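Hi everyone, sorry if this is the wrong subforum. Our group has a chain we'd like a structural model of before ordering constructs, and none of us has done structure prediction before. Sequence below.
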Amino acid sequence: MSPASFALTWRFLRGGLGRLILTVLAVACGVALVCAIDLVNRAVYAAFGEVLDTMSGKAALQVTPGEGAFLPEDLAAEVKATPGVDLAVPVVSSWAFLADGSGEQLTVHGVDIANDDAIRVYEPAAQSGVVENVLAFLNQPDSIILTDAFAARHHLTLEDPLELDTPTGRRRFVIRGLLAPTGIARLQGGNLVVMDIAAAELAFTRPGLANRIDVVVHRDADVGVVRDALMAKLPAGLHVEAPVQRRVDLQKVLRSVQTLLQAVGIFGLFAAFLITFSRLSVVFEARVGQLAVLRSLGVRSRRVWWELVKEGALIGAFGIALGIPAGIALAHLLLPFIATTTAIGAKVSIGEVTLSARPESMLQAGGLGLVAVILAALVPARQAARMAVMETLRTRDVENERPLVPPRATGVILVVAICCVAWHMVVVTALSGLVASALVSIAMALLMRPALGATSPLLRRLGPAVAGATGRYAVGTLLRSPRRTALTIATIGIGFGVVLWLWTLAGSFERSVRDVMPGVLRGDLVVGSPNIAAGYIEAPLDDGLLEAVAVIPGVRAVVGEMTADWQYDGGPIALNAFDPNYFSEDTFGTWRFIGRTLPDAGALVARGHGVLVSENFVHNIGLDVGDVLRLDSPSGPLSVRIAGVTADFLSPRGTVLLSRDLYRARWRDPHITHALVRVDRGVEVPSVRERIARTLGVRYGIRVQRLDELVAWFAEQVRRAFTGLDVLGMLVLVVVLVGVGDALAAGTLERTRELGVLRALGLRRRRMGRIVLGEALILGLLGVTAAVSFGLGLGVLWVTTTFPALIGWTLTLYVPLARAAGIALAGIVVCLLAAYVPASRAVRLDPVVALRTE
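Answer:
Right subforum, don't worry. Here is the predicted structure as tokens:
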């Protein structure tokens, strides 16, 4: 019996492998969940990163004014004059959308078509013949180049017209070139439009304004030295960074969303751990006769312990062997859901995501699964191996009353969990929140057995009172194996508690959006684009739309709003700019301020001498009313005072609300996200809405909504963002279903002889099935009680503390009572479904066969 040999271990395991199949499936489900989440997270990040790498081409550096802002195109000459710079290429980068109603997005790449050196930056080799007559192409501003892939999908050829929605309205373009699938033509499945930069400026920015300058550095120049030289000569608000740094920044943005997804996967694996822990403790105790023989023959307890641990490792290996392929398949199923969650949560645009089976993901999931199973086997194996031979023989067929985890250790873990929660509420970091959540879960699982013991007198009275002899027998059976019962209840509590936790988080987010948005966006109608640029952010429109809306009969006033992301103090914030009269007049209502404000705060913001900030800006940045906020705008440093605090949900880190006159001057951005419309008194809102849509709908490709419809639309985006988490939560429930089925099936199998005696004494088949279903019902009720307590407690902790630390948003707590009731019902139904097969077996049990069972 060599320590490295699995011969004896396999002999032990082979005899009861059929009874452990559900345990193996539980491990496989947990491994599959962790593997799938990691595979999808890596695929999504790789897709976003590929977009950045492809768009930068051979550029070693990029000069950018920040998200949504613009810089002068002629700044490229100053960049080119910097020592070490080989080429400086101004670029217009934006989005266009098919005007056929599909809203299909295309990435716009505007570059100097006549400059072969600029073209070669983005193409591995010059594609000859893409444009037959370059001069004719440049002389016609409607000229565009599409990719072969996009043209083939839409049955387009050269000289075909194509209507696109742009910020300046709906425009008709003509295809005068096609790109082979190389270089940037591979971007987002070929959804690319290449234009001359002058024509792109007319449609997407303003003449003379570009989005960025791509910098090609001399082969023998030091990129860091060139970067420092550019930063020294350019305005502070312009960023000079390598494309690889943008990938790092993107990873920081995505990390919070991915951490939340991984937390759900770990909870699923923890549920599998509880199932394995429970099952192995029962299996090892059922083998006391064999263990007694080994001990009486002189085998040391350490060797017995090692053989049992190896048995757990084999179960883990079987689970991993099933879980890894299942995780790859599950990843393909989860990919669109999690991609949507990530895109909305990080406010980024995502194209085609390719999933590949990465060895690191499989190793990580397999390693975690194996560690979980071995940990689940350590304590039961230790207790079974250390039992004295006489005690082993005396306790055969009886669950060991000695707890697997000593009460003192349970008490220590409980105290540590409480301390971690208190510590988290003080330091408020994402790491402390994750640690506190994990310890709360472990403490909840360990407390189930003491809680079951405390409630056992009540259960013994309620069982007969509700269901007579059936209830008495069902309660007695469960309380006879308190360890297994407690672990099954804990599994149900963890699984359904995770779903309730996610629903509390999602409901609080949605309720916060519904509460906050009417205080920021006010008016009778909202005019915006029906197309999504990135995440949930609507595509920008040219502010010339404001004048067109203002002359529509029945329109009393119109205000432009522009939103953009910006970098401040080492992290992202949002800018929310409104026309000055939105702050200084009450035509659209008044602002909801939080706390004190500066005198004439609205007028101060309207004149561009002050700003408002969101509540989470104060929480995350630390600046408050009266403090001076210094922003590095693309036109140079900007210092303004904080005039007041309000609620806004644009950015998890914080939002700065400012005058659009100030924003347009310093950020050179002539676009708007929404036009807020106030209707004349006595005029029906639907009639004005119809006039705006009829007059401007075709020209601009706009969407006209009531304010409550826009709020509902944003709430729908929140629900879309949490769809991926909901799917993961449901997969955790699959693990729970397997665990409950495992516990009930094991209990039925182990009581075969006992059930045979009952049948021989005249117990009817139907009553036998009711006993098993009664056990499931009791487990469901107790598990649901634990789930509601655990899920709501974890939800409150995350809404009030952890989520603001992890993501940044400050939420209003909303307890989904209706969904909590649904969870309770679903928990009971899942337990009854899990009991169906064991109940059916009990009903079909032959007394003669059962009485012969040992």
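For your construct planning: The CA atoms of residues 158 and 175 lie 5 Å apart. The chain has a mean pLDDT of 81.
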